[in-house]
Amino acid sequence: MTYNDLLQGYVDKNYELECYGSVKEPIRGKDKDYRLYKIVVNPECEKTLFITNGFHGEEFNGPISLLHIFDETTDFAKKNRIRLIVYPCINPAGFDLRQRYNPSDELEYGNNDFLRYEIKKNEWVGTLKNNEPFLRYKIVDSAAKEVRLLKHDVLQYQNPAPQAVLDIHQDCLKKEQGDFYAYILDKREVYLKIMKKLAKIAPVSKNIQAENIEGKRKVHYQIDKDGFIFLRDGSITDMFHRLGSEFAVCAETNTDLPLKKVCQINLIWIKELINLISK
Ligand SMILES: [Zn+2]
């Protein structure tokens, strides 16, 4: 499936694509124009679930799964009086090439390039250690043009911030490490109930150590025993949580997981977040 096929999929289902910018990317030596789109459903509703997808091009089943479950998503949102603001594929050239960053090679750190934290006077970092104190944070511009345009567009939704935000990703996990996990920032008990539902579809990945390297600085973190990562990494979910979003989740499924299961997992995240904010 190409980016154009993905867009056509939404058009065929009668969704209105709203252009928020365009970029030129070199595809096999030739510049190609990409228009960037979002979809807003139930614009009259007061509460919002905000969904971003396709930051990383090799995680292609993220965007493809959302197209498959979109009718069910919008039916459920309508029933619960929830507005959806959806960015179905943020990095279209990466998606077409099935590569992580855009071919201009600007998208490195693209998905955690929204916030910086000042940990000491004039010392700014992108990722905080666990419970690390900081002086202040600022929203920063991104090197990647797709993310710059995205950020410009999404910041119109900060007053009030969406009640819930979901960023959909995939990871190349080894089978024995499980098939899904999630980044969260708080409300562990709330999300644990959702994890238990998801565990009926695929094994949870757990107890994996990881580190984030930023120059000489290393931040150690882990996927814990329940499949959660707590990390302030300057991502779009971190930013919206700082801006006041009550629920902020980055959902990861294994890149090798069958599409059907990716769809099931992402749909559960969407429905459960809608349930949480429609209460
Ligand atoms: Zn990713």
What is the percent of helical residues?
A: 25-40%
Largest sheet: 8 strands, mixed
CATH topology: Aminopeptidase
The total tally of domains equals 1
Rg of Cα set: 18 Å
Give unreliable regions as ranges. Answer: none
Count of DSSP H/I helices: 7
DSSP summary, beta strand count:
13
- Strand fraction: 25-35%
Distance between the termini: 37 Å
Which overall shape is indicated by the principal axes computed on the Cα atoms? globular
- The named CATH superfamily: Zn peptidases
Helix/strand/pairing class, anyone?
alpha/beta
Question: How would you describe what is shown here?
Answer:
α2 runs parallel beside α7. The N and C termini lie far apart (37 Å). An 8-stranded mixed β-sheet has the order 1-2-4-3-8-13-9-12, with helices on both faces. A 3-stranded antiparallel β-sheet has the order 6-5-7. It has a two-stranded antiparallel sheet with strand order 10-11. Helices cover 30% and strands 31% of the residues. The model has no long low-confidence stretch (mean pLDDT 95). The chain has 279 residues and is an alpha/beta fold. It has a single domain, classed as 3-Layer(aba) Sandwich (Aminopeptidase). Bound molecules: zinc ion. Zinc ion binds next to loops.
